[in-house]
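Example 3.2
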Amino acid sequence: MKKELLAPAGDIEAGYAALYYGADAVYLGLQQFSARATAANFNEENLRDFVGYAHHLGRKVFAAVNTLVQENELSDLLKTLDICSRCRVDAVIIQDLGTARIIREQYPELEMHASTQMAVHNKEGALALQRLGFSRVVVARELSLPEIKEIAAIPGLETEAFIHGALCYSYSGLCLFSSMESGKSANRGKCLYPCRAAFAGESGERHYFSMKDMALQEDVLKMPVTSLKIEGRKKTALYVAAVTDYYRHILDGDGADVRKEEHIRQIFSRPWCKFHFNGKNKEVIDRNFVGHRGLFIGKIASVQNGKLMLVPTHKISRFDGIQIDVPGEERPFGFSLQNLRVGGKNVFEAEAGTAVEIHLPPKAPVLKKGYNVYLASSTAVKGAYPYEHPKAGAYKPRHLLDVSVEIMPGKLTARAEGFEAMIEGNFPPAEVSGKVAEAVKKAFEKTGDTPFELAGISVENPNGLFVPVSQLNDLRRALYGQIVLPEKQGVLAETEARVLPRKSGKIIKTDKVSNLGLLDFSEIDELVILLSPDFDPADLKKLPKNKVRLALPAVCRRPKQFEPLIAGLLGQGYKKWEIGNYWGLSVLPRHGIDLSFDSPLYAMNSQAVQEAKTMGVGRVTLALEDTLQNWQELAQVSPLPVVLVVYQDVPLFTSAACIRDNDCKNCPRGKKWMELQKNGEKYMALSENCQIMLFAEKPFCAAAEAASVRADFYRADFCYKDYSPAEVKAIWDSVMSGRDVPVCRKGNIFRRI
């Protein structure tokens, strides 16, 4: 099976570069609802031009409409999907369940791809999305080759995997760090990358969460997926050209070209890694430096009188940019080469292996012998990737027409799209009747400047009559001139009215039954217990069974670990369940249970809630990173009961990149808490079973605002961190009385996201 090489385009120039250097498909964003909101992105005019050109070349275009959508944005979402439909994109990449519902009901011509933001990290999650109508899933970057193979083996489902580019520290879609810190949500395309910052921790001040770049190189040939995806919608056309060209040659059997690798490193590159593709790998974080590094070209030989001596392993030229690692500085020191001297003479360039004297700029930091030097920008490489693109408007997607032509004595009739044109005339018998149909086809293929393209034609000529080409052309012009295509304008499908009356219930959630020891269960409507593979079902005997709901975690790399536990609990009559990721839909029965969605299965608009209801879900949890205004609006129009979390230690991210200092072989893998600090704020990182979760020292609390939301249930969570039963009772009594805990965070309650 030929693999699709999928390249990014943050603007139309990057798109043209991708096509020129061999991309089979390009993914891009529009002005709204793109997970790369700060990229230039596409408007309708240049999207139409680009799609037309790509289709002319036989390539595909996917539009990323992959952010979460608030209730008051649904009308704008329709406008964006209208553009995708009019411009005939080949698929839409989405995260929001409401977007999925609208596309399925209003835009069936648009294929749905499940974004990496949907956190598909196992076969069960992929199967669930396939049942929801997704033709392709983008698998989580964290997966190993065997895990990718398992998902790729699902019949009838396309798979897409990242092969090169920047890595997020968190599973995509499960990161709330930027959002809860600043209101700039990764799930809304506005991430500020706080994970790249330096934190003070047990190994000193380090960049504990700053990931290297992924570069699978020739390992892409082992990939069983449909599509190989390059990250980089915020990168330049030069970068897109170089990376696309590099992998195009690998896929075409030419191998990994070292020179092309060097080009990529000079344009933009952090240190490279393969993440967990070949198994667990701790060498995926660059603790000491952040940002672009460049191509390593040697170490400083000496520094004296404002000059450094270097014997580069690669040719360098005047006006190239170099960077030097300076211990203690989070970013390399960089400058442009204004002067080069070889053998005491000024030169324009110096070959590899030549001793070079480089003048340092004023105010350079103290540099020492042995510091690493990188070629971070090359004037030669900047001109190494020319590309062609068409004139604006030269290619536009055309509407496919099926035309029927009827030739009868005295008149010609043509019909298409409900329109009809007719001309009269005298038509003699044809000498060769078979040639008439061919002439009709050729005449109607001449679509010229019209927005049409002939898809098919049928000719009825029962009397074998001849028609001159001039009259066929007149008929074509008459038909094409009157066809008016209606613009696609989606409308919101109605959501169902709520059947059950609204009530105000109280829910507590915990991962330790012992936390509940001092609570009066008669005052609590529901007890949600977060399960783990080693959970002891005997603990549930301490609780009133009719009030227990069992919750599955958002991340589970081995769902089979849960199968015996789930089967046993179902057998004991536990019918109320909660899930935080789509994999839960595949491991739980489709019927006969009371199912709820936790907050990582984002519900931020009524269309998403309606989609959940269609799936058999009985209630949803409002998104933790949402605003007070949207909570209030959604609570009023939601077709399902909604839960508002009023207290929680919010997982700012969940990651498969371990920050423990020990190696994997000698790791005890037990639970370990690590304290971190940044800008006066304290954080706690929980490391357990090869997974890292980060929490702020201060919990999230919305107790004071809860009454204004008018949710159906209010929930307080006591998971992950260690609480005593007395602490749980004190916090519970406070927040359920509408009082915030003394020191807390408000997230985005009073912000825009």
